[in-house]
Structures are given as C-alpha cells and as structure tokens.
Amino acid sequence: MSSPDDVDDVQTELNEAEDARTAPTLEFYGGRAASAIPLGLFVVWAVVQSGLFGIGDTTGLVLGMLVSLVVGMFFVKGDWKHYANAIFEGMTERVAATAIVAWLWAGMFAQLLQDGGFVNGLIWVANAVPVSEAVLPTLLPALTFVLAALLATGIGTGYGTTITFVTTFFPATVLLGANPVLMFGAILSGAVFGDNLAPVSDTTIVSAVTQDADIGGVVASRLKYAFVAAALAIVGYLIAGQLMATYQPTGDGLPSGNVVGLVHLVSMGLVIWTAVNGRHIVEAISWGIIAAIVFNVGLGLAPASSIVQFVAPTTAPFADAFTALPIVTIAGPETPAAGVYGSLYTGAAGFFPLIVLTLLIVAAARIMIQGGGFEAVQDFLLSTVATKVRRAETTMVLGTAGVNAMITINTAAEIAIAPYVARIGEQFNINGYRRANILDANTSALGYIFPWAGGVLAGYSQMPALVEEYGVESMLVNPVDVWPFVFHGWLLFFVFLAAALTGYGLEYATDREAEEVARV
C-alpha cells in the first residue's frame, strides 16, 4: 500500500507544478500555442530520427531537444532570460528526479543480476520444463508479460521493471529462440500493467490525489478494466508468438544453464516484499542490490572486482598501496585502460544520455505551461469539444494521449494534464474514480508505446550492451519497431476510449444530500 511519505512526495510534485502555472508567464510571437514549439519540434525530430531513418540513438534525441529549445527561444517576446530561467526551473523539478533515481537504482540492480548469472538460471529453467524447443519460444512472450506485470505491480515502477527484464529475461528468451521485438513489447506491456494498477506507483498516486479520490478505491475501481485488457493481451501474445518468426536456440551465444543463478529470485523477491510493505522504492531496490552483491561474491557467481573496479594509471602516486584490495589494480597490457568499471558503474552509466534527455523534456514542458499552451488547449476543448458528458470523457482520453505524445515521462505528463482533467470532469459532475482511471490508464499505456517515450528508451538504452555481450544483433530492437506490439498498452487505451464513447462504467459524483452515486 502507499505510505504517507509516498503521498507527501507526490503532493510536493503537484505543488511544484502549480507553482509553474502561477509563475510569471512567457509571451510568444504567435500566441500561447507557440509555447508548444519546443515540444512539438522534438516530437518531429524523434519521428524523423527513429521512424524515417531508423536511428534509435538516445543522444541524438538529446540533440533534437536542445535544437528545439533554441528554436523556441526565437519566438519569445521580451527578455530571453525569462525563457532561460524557465529551462533551469523545469530541469530542477522533482518529477524528473523521481524518474532518474528509479533508472539509476534499477540499472545497478539489473546489471548485478545479469552479471550474477540470473540469465543462466532462467535458461536452466527453460531447459527443465517439459516443453519442446519448438513450442517454448512461442509461449515465452505471454509468460514474460505475466511475470513483468507481477514485478511491476509489486515494486510500483514500470521503468524499473523494464530495465530489470530487458537485462535478464530478454537476452535469455531471445537466446532460447523467442522473437526479440515481441519480447520487448511483452516487457513494456507488463510495465504498463504495473504502473496502472500498483498502489505504490507514482502514476496511481498522482491520479488519485489530483482527482480527489482515495488510492484504495481508485485501484479497486480500475481492476475490471485492467484485467480485461490483460486477458486480451495474453491471448494476443499467444497468437503472435505462433505467427511471428522465432530463432533457433543454437549457436555460440547460447550460455549453458546454471541453477545457482536462480538465487537472484531471492534478490527480486526482497525488492518486491520491501516495496509492498510500504518502504520507498529507493530503499527497496537498495536492499535488492545488497542481496545481489552478497550472493554474487559469496556463491562465487561473480568476483568482487566485477562489482566495482578501480584501474589506476601507472603514474598514480598512491595506487600501489591499495593493490592488495581485489577492487584496485594498475593499468597494464592485460588490464583495461585506467578508469572505473564493474556492474554498478555499467548499470548506472547506461542511463546518462536518457537522464539528460529527461531533464530537457521536463524543461520544455515547463515552458509550455508558463507560456499558456496547456491552458489554451484546455480552453479550446472546453469551449468547442467537451460540450456533453460523453464528449467530455472522450476529450479526457484523447487530451491525455496528446500530452503524453509530447511529454514522454509519464508522471510528468500526468501532472501536467491532471488539473485540466479535473476541471472538465467537475464541470460534468463525473466521479473522481472515473476521472482518475481515465487519466492513469492513458498515461501508463502511452508512456510505453511512443518510440520516444521514457519507458521505451529506458529499455532500449540497455540493449547495445547486450549485443556486445552475447553477440546477437537482433537483441537491438529499434523503438520504432516495437510500438505495435505493446498489446496491453493499446488494449487499455482502447478499453477506456470505448468506455468513454459508450458511457460504460460512467459514475457521477455523489449527490451531497442523497449520498448516492448516479450511474448510466
């Protein structure tokens, strides 16, 4: 369950977002809509880079966001320092730090599991089950979706789940013959399920707090939608597993199974147990990291030098005095170049480009808020589109989708659009649970579908290292190839779109005198 600290943290983020709305406004040539230029240009850049050119380079997206911010500056009226200040204020928002911390901790944890032979343990299990090698790859996408959904629901972070599964289950299942694109889609689907349903998920808490609803009631009210979408997604992965090409599980890249690697199920279980018991996700994953280090070193799965290693240059004045330690050595012909190495370093370093991109995207969102872009969209929708209750709900669904297309960090997008969903819903007396469910379902789903979305890039950023380690080029899945196969994300989106269009499950706010809830 969510702890009071979790709710307080989210409330702090919401207060900061409100501060942004009340901060001195930026005026643009072209009106309030021009404040969307930085985010709009970035989306165009991402589509061209990933979709047209097939380049899944996160650093390239960082360049695209930088160029977009520079272009946006030329549309600002008056002193440009206010525009620059908005960038700095956006980059220091708590919502960006939340995603970054989750990536860094999860990255270190996942790398420790990978280097500790967890992949070999999974391969041992696959070889032990009484299923033929021809059938097993067709079942793996559905099985992986279920397991990823369970982990994401337990720890409350879809990003952490994506990183953990991409570095462990993904290489193991691809080496066993599963289709890599379908596997990546199944992992992202599991992350969507957890982000949408976990009581400890940031998106769940934000949706409840902003729509004046309790978290327990919100989670209970969305079960029927989530389970329907999940059941259809499992069927989809079983069918797609039969239809989409698999690979022969042979070759030099297939490691031998080792049952000892399964000890890291205890590491993962410790993270889940700690998180479910209300501890902060940083604390939960930290306990998992400690357990993984103890297992790796204590059981001989990986030496201490693989956890962290300092390779000092020959000119270092004091390094010789510490070479008796297993984690310190001097650079030479048989050692790597001077630097810091190891699982912890590799797990964290893989996210540095994505961290920079995240900070810039949140900064661009801040510019759009202070420039009145979001308010202009809200005013347009309220005056011309959301004129009846079903049209209002449809507007919530599509408006949330549009914001998520631009702000690709799902919690940031949710915080940005939440006040407008509340305003539209309250105008038509729509129940808070209903508003929270529409808000969270779309935010959770689309944050793992768009090729430039944070969840997709978090998984993709780990794949180049997998190609280098296992020598299997197909382990590098272009983000633009995976979006059709995030089945649970798409189904969740269409379930709520259908619910909005038909009025299924619609509830109105409690009548204060009769204390009744109206349904249609």
Short description:
The protein has 520 residues and is an all-alpha fold.
Keywords:
single chain, 520 residues, mainly alpha, 67% helix, 2% strand, globular, disordered C terminus, Na/H_Antiport_NhaC-like_C, membrane, cell membrane, transport
Task: Indicate the topology.
Blueprint: H1 4-22, H2 37-52, H3 58-73, H4 81-91, H5 94-115, H6 118-128, H7 136-155, H8 158-167, H9 169-175, H10 180-197, H11 202-210, H12 215-243, H13 264-276, H14 281-298, H15 304-307, E1 309-312, E2 328-330, E3 339-341, H16 343-349, H17 352-370, H18 373-385, H19 389-406, H20 410-427, H21 432-446, H22 454-460, H23 463-470, H24 479-482, H25 487-502
Parallel strand pairs: 1-2
Antiparallel strand pairs: 1-3
Describe the structure.
There is one protein chain. The chain has a three-stranded mixed sheet with strand order 2-1-3. Residues 511-520 have low confidence and may be disordered. Helix 7 (136-155) runs antiparallel to helix 12, helix 12 (215-243) crosses helix 25 and helix 18 (373-385) packs parallel to helix 20. The chain has 520 residues and is mainly alpha-helical. The protein is built from 25 helices and three strands. It has helices at residues 4-22, 37-52, 58-73, 81-91, 94-115, 118-128, 136-155, 158-167, 169-175, 180-197, 202-210, 215-243, 264-276, 281-298, 304-307, 343-349, 352-370, 373-385, 389-406, 410-427, 432-446, 454-460, 463-470, 479-482, 487-502; strands spanning 309-312, 328-330, 339-341. The chain starts with a helix and ends in an 18-residue tail after the last helix.
